[in-house]
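Loading example: each entry is read as two labelled lines plus one structure line.
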Amino acid sequence: MCVAPVGVAYRFSMDPLRFEEARAIVSERTRETIGQLPAESVPLDAAAGRILARDICADRDYPPFNRSARDGFAVIASDVANVPATLELVGETRAGEPSRFALEPGKTVEIMTGAPGPENADAVVMVEYSQRDGSSVTLTGSVSAGRNLIMAGSEATQGQCVLKAGTRIGYPSVAQLGTVGCADVPVYRQPSAAILSTGDEVLPIGARPQSYQIRNSNAHSLAAQVRRRGGVPRILPVAKDTLEDTRQRIEEGLSSDILLLSGGVSMGKHDLVEEVLADLGTELFFTSVRIQPGKPLVFGRCRDTLVFGLPGNPLSTMVTFEVFASIAVDLAGGAPSSPLRFQQAPLAEAFRHKPVLTRFLGARLEGEFGETRVRADRGQGSGDVTAFARADCLMVASDRRAEWAAGDLISVMPL
Amino acid sequence: MCVAPVGVAYRFSMDPLRFEEARAIVSERTRETIGQLPAESVPLDAAAGRILARDICADRDYPPFNRSARDGFAVIASDVANVPATLELVGETRAGEPSRFALEPGKTVEIMTGAPGPENADAVVMVEYSQRDGSSVTLTGSVSAGRNLIMAGSEATQGQCVLKAGTRIGYPSVAQLGTVGCADVPVYRQPSAAILSTGDEVLPIGARPQSYQIRNSNAHSLAAQVRRRGGVPRILPVAKDTLEDTRQRIEEGLSSDILLLSGGVSMGKHDLVEEVLADLGTELFFTSVRIQPGKPLVFGRCRDTLVFGLPGNPLSTMVTFEVFASIAVDLAGGAPSSPLRFQQAPLAEAFRHKPVLTRFLGARLEGEFGETRVRADRGQGSGDVTAFARADCLMVASDRRAEWAAGDLISVMPL
């Protein structure tokens, strides 16, 4: 790890890291920077996407009773070892009723899906395998013990932790929270991320730019990315290319948990961000990563705010957020880790690159089901928003491999 | 396709479909049911996740000028065919300034990333390959024409459609919208989805259930799923197991674009949903699909509302929404299609099943980068919310294959 001494004049000129190394540094430094996270409570219907702030325990056994998984007949399994078997029908239990029966050998109770099984029953024969005749039922399907009857406590026992603090709440977690009656969900406060674009050429999106000016699209795509990760974005006014304005805006951003700078981190002499960060005593952890797009990527810490200097090209900004800065949003939001999961998809056509950088390319998935193929769309490079807006995933070409044939598997990340 | 005649007494007993067939029917029937979709306008920062209601065109050429992709020196490429080459430095252009120069052979202009190139320049040599000496610069890197200089209009020309109506707005689309100055984004109105759980055993999540009762977790997980797809969920009070209450609640649900019923679609005699749907003249398109969980799945149409009868087991409810009902939310929301993209991941351990159904299993991804492995977590079956809440993807076992060895690729869908 390469840490520039605080207060020493430095250029953004450390050796570039491999992207896995850079990710590890972001994780480590974020962990040591964030303190105790405050929690709050939100209604269950607002909890999706948030991160649980404490362990959630089962309020009772699950299932709370021996639950029938089918409509059918509750039996002692040994009674139907040989079928057809005719049993005496002693009653019926619907879902939403307590069980009023204790089964004896040779007897059965009609039972509905979700209903509690009678005492002594250890299986349910599906209604499809039954013929009823008055008070007797002939069962034509044999079942082993436990079949179609989920025993009380087999999914979770009372007091057992069913969701851990740090879980990102997806719809399956919502189901679990609802099941145990958690109507108000304890979640961590969302981390704040200030977003600062820099440069005289950058105008607000509502403005009409001169031919040599561009709009501040990066701030809005970053805000969408922050929001998607569960953070709260705060878009600052664009910093002009003066020391004073750059310094003032960066200081404003330091009141957030995370400061995302877009632009101003390459080697040009008009890049003032570096100078201001140095002046403010920013501790730099790395300044370059061997990826494309996004090589000149700066990560540091200033007054307990994690600072990312993202390159200003739109694709570089978006990709470096997804691959690096997202880790800080996740961890500062209470997630215990922020792994980057690659799935694999076969290439629609051959791909080659110079294996000195890990490359992230906008790409499209084509076809459905098991026939999905991935096709890269390089467009005109890392400024080509139009090409990237057609993408539905990132294709990842490892720095350890040069060539892929059509049909070879390659890594993809959903957008 | 099997359509039961309206008004004829029917049971939910059509032949089960393969899941691809069932998906095609949901797409087709949704398309013929939804009319012209109303549009509205939202601020760019609220547009992520929404679906574009009209084509978005480039307001000018992109880039609007020949844009330098690097800090360096704008050149006529033939001047640096042999390096080192010493050129006369005639000026400097920063990003945010118009270009004031026209290059002649043997001359160069210092240029910053994002700045417009001088007239006649066709490439930029990176500053890393330069040595400056007063008014001359020696360049040590040769470049071909077009290198590091993105020509005006090469990404998009003025008036060109850069985002199509029907695009789901992700962060790359936000970047595109911001780039062309679209501060207020035309999007389709979000489709509404009523959610109705049925059964005397089902209580609101805030209630304290008796041992034989359960909480209405399905309504809340479905609401999270609807919201994630861009729909607006409306949770109805649980329908009691009487014809009157079931009918009243279902009629309430018919004021929404989509009605999601959870429970009440299996063969049990206390399932009243079927009877009420028939009474209301519901046209049924299918009643069973060869998948697990979720085989008894009903899809139909009643008074222009698309009706899904999802099985009541929590996993069945969630999976059948993701695989089938989500199509209706997507298409009714204005998406032109709703493909199911499977990626592949190698199995952490061997898997086998009886290949008569397509199986969806909660599963976990392990490891990072190219080493990601998938591991199924079957738990106690389709009622086991606790096991499913640990999952971070669905593993999909095709009905056309019985066995996979550890390390074999299998299909996965992110949750």
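Chain A touches chain B through 121 residues (CB under 8 Å).
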